[in-house]
Amino acid sequence: MRAFTFQRVTAAADAARAVAAHPGAMFLAGGTTLVDLMKVDVLTPDTVVSVRHLGMSSIDVSDDVIAVGANVTNSQLAWHPVVRDRYPVLSEAILSGATAQLRNMATVAGNILQRTRCPYFRDVHASCNRRHPGSGCDALDGFNRGHAVLGVSEHCIATHPSDMCVAMVVLDAEVHTVRADGTTRSILFRDFHLAPGDTPHVEVALEHGELITHIVIPHLPAARRSHYLKVRDRASYEFALASAAVVLDLDGDTIRAARLGLGGIATKPWRAIGAEHFLSGRKASDDTFRGAAEIALAGAVAREHNHFKIELAKRTIVRAFAAARDAKL
Ligand SMILES: Cc1cc2nc3c(=O)[nH]c(=O)nc-3n(C[C@H](O)[C@H](O)[C@H](O)COP(=O)(O)OP(=O)(O)OC[C@H]3O[C@@H](n4cnc5c(N)ncnc54)[C@H](O)[C@@H]3O)c2cc1C
User: Fold this and answer.
1) Is 69 close to ligand 1, i.e. is its CB under 6 Å away?
2) Which atom from ligand 1 is nearest to the alpha carbon of 93?
3) Atom of ligand 1 at shortest distance to CA of 212?
4) pLDDT per residue over 202-258, tens digit each?
5) Does the CB atom of residue 116 touch ligand 1 within 6 A?
């Protein structure tokens, strides 16, 4: 175990200042990502600043939005009665992830900032541009069955692992932060995670030391008819091979508007805007959903072992929309 300094603070701006003051400092919430990665030397902070005593742990519901504190646990958010009622897609996405024990410990901010499960990222003896910029990417020609087909680059094909984030991106949630100088800002979820491009090590639109304080989810009446479908190698305690978060606004059997997010196949929580446009005004049939799926995957780039994900994702999209359409509200 490497030695590190542990700090506990009681004000959000102090936490931001404490991390901003040290290039090697990191926030600690539930620890289910950070401590795991410290044990295998992938993350080696010299200072760890605990945010668990900052509050930021309430879920505040109004007519227009739900504001979710950064330290709310995954379980608290998933089981909140208003979330289950107004945003089934979010509740289902969270409950499909990890295990009950992990969800009880894991926080919302930590989930958003969890790191890829790419085995080459998690192995310090492998080449990984995300972990060690410029070192190469062993996944490109390695065993890449679990890797991404959307948003990939020649420098990284690591999949973003979160389920919750796929629902958040579909709901147009906003991430609210405070910086070391005390200024605050909000970042649309769609813009929060970054595709790897030439800089895979830059994963999110945060400055060093910028603290997530809460997430705001706008009220979306159509989200009552929403669904998260996750396809994976085993039924629980497993990351997605492909997943779809869908919202369907119906007028009889015609689609007034639809939203589509994809997980397990992309380098960031993926929003399929082109597919959404295709769906609006069409009949809510399986053929229509298949047409949207073709558009959503049109730009997919597969490697040696993950080609199956393209067809798997298309079928996942069709099934998710069909389930939302057929749901008895
Ligand atoms: C075995 C296992 C299986 C899993 N399966 C799934 C799954 O199927 N689906 C899924 O979606 N997830 C899964 N997860 C991931 C899990 O959801 C995350 O590990 C968890 O949400 C992280 O939250 P945490 O509070 O423990 O974060 P921590 O580990 O404490 O922190 C994670 C990151 O967030 C940063 N951070 C924390 N709070 C803040 C803040 N307020 N502001 C800025 N930065 C902050 C930390 O510095 C760190 O970089 C799994 C995890 C494990 C260990």
Assistant:
1) no
2) 11
3) 42
4) 999 999 999 999 999 999 999 999 999 999 999 999 999 999 999 999 999 999 999
5) no
The Cα 205–Cα 187 span in angstroms is 8
Buried b (16+ CB within 10 A) or exposed e, 46-77: ebbbbbeebebbebebeeeebbbbbbbbbbbb
Task: Assess contact for 155 and 198: CB atoms under 8 A.
Answer: yes
- State if residue 324 touches ligand 1 by the CB under 6 angstroms criterion: no
Query: Taking a C-beta distance cutoff of 8 angstroms, is the pair 276, 260 a contact?
Result: yes
Instruction: Establish whether residue 162 lines the binding site of ligand 1, counting it when its CB lies within 6 angstroms of any ligand atom.
Output: yes
Return the closest-CA partner of residue 284 out of 242, 252, 260: 252
Nearest to 158, CA basis, from 166, 147, 149: 147
Across the chain, which has 329 residues, the per-10-residue mean pLDDT values are 92 96 97 97 98 96 97 98 98 97 98 98 98 98 98 98 98 98 97 98 98 98 98 95 98 98 98 98 98 98 98 99 96
Burial of 87 (0-12, 13-18, 19+ CB in 10 A): buried
Q: Report CA(223)–ligand 1 centroid distance (Å).
A: 25
With a 6 A CB cut-off, is 150 part of the ligand 1 pocket?
no
Q: Whose CA is nearest to atom 34 of ligand 1?
A: 110
Tell me how far the alpha carbon of residue 231 lies from the centroid of ligand 1, in angstroms: 21
All residues at 6 or more sequence positions from 181 whose CB lies less than 8 Å from its CB, including other chains: none
Q: What is the DSSP letter of 61?
A: E
CA-based nearest residue to 229, from 318, 290, 293, 150: 318
Report whether residue 113 contacts ligand 1, using a CB cutoff of 6 Å. yes
- The pTM (predicted TM-score) of the whole model is 0.98
CA 266 to chain centre: 10
